[in-house]
Amino acid sequence: QVQLVESGGGLVQPGGSLRLSCAASGSRFSRNARGWFRQAPGKQRELVAFISSGGVINYADAVKGRFTISGDNAKNTVYLQMNSLKPEDTAVYYCYMAGPLASWGQGTQVTVSS
């Protein structure tokens, strides 16, 4: 059974930064595509950033240049560094791992507000 546990969300002012973490158990992140999605109230869940199983990274246009996805294979953890946050980044952020045991985390709330 795969478990993905996110942490690092919270309330931040516009222009601030947060780092989200997603720790996996039951499967190795590095063997699968993995990344972050988000869902704002009343909107569909959307891709934020993703690392393919081959290590290719993709970002949504809305976050390019501000967000950075990375991974620590030793810790079996994937991170999302979010800088220059905007109110429109407010959402629940979900970690996702693809593959035969595709799994979602429980989500962590990010609120950008003054």
Q: Which parts are unreliable, with pLDDT below 50 for 5 consecutive residues or more? A: none
Give the proportion of residues in helices. under 10%
Helix and strand element order? EEEEEEEEEEE
Distance N to C terminus: 40 Å
The tally of beta strands, per DSSP, is 11
Overall mean pLDDT: 94
Strand content: over 45%
| Number of helices in the DSSP assignment | 0
Main structural class: mainly beta
C-alpha geometry: globular
Features:
globular; four-stranded antiparallel beta sheet; seven-stranded mixed beta sheet; about 0% helix; about 110 residues
Structure description:
With 114 residues, the protein is an all-beta fold. 0% of the residues lie in helices and 50% in strands. The protein has strands spanning 3-7, 10-12, 18-25, 34-39, 46-51, 57-59, 67-72, 77-82, 91-97, 103-104, 108-112. Strands 2, 4, 5, 6, 9, 10 and 11 form a seven-stranded mixed β-sheet that branches. Strand 5 and strand 6 form a beta hairpin. It is globular, with a radius of gyration of 13 Å.
Topology:
Layout (H helix, E strand, L loop, with lengths): L2 E5 L2 E3 L5 E8 L8 E6 L6 E6 L5 E3 L7 E6 L4 E6 L8 E7 L5 E2 L3 E5 L2
Parallel strand pairs: 2-11
Antiparallel strand pairs: 1-3, 3-8, 4-5, 4-9, 5-6, 7-8, 9-10, 9-11
What's the short story on this structure?
The chain is mostly beta strands and 114 residues long.
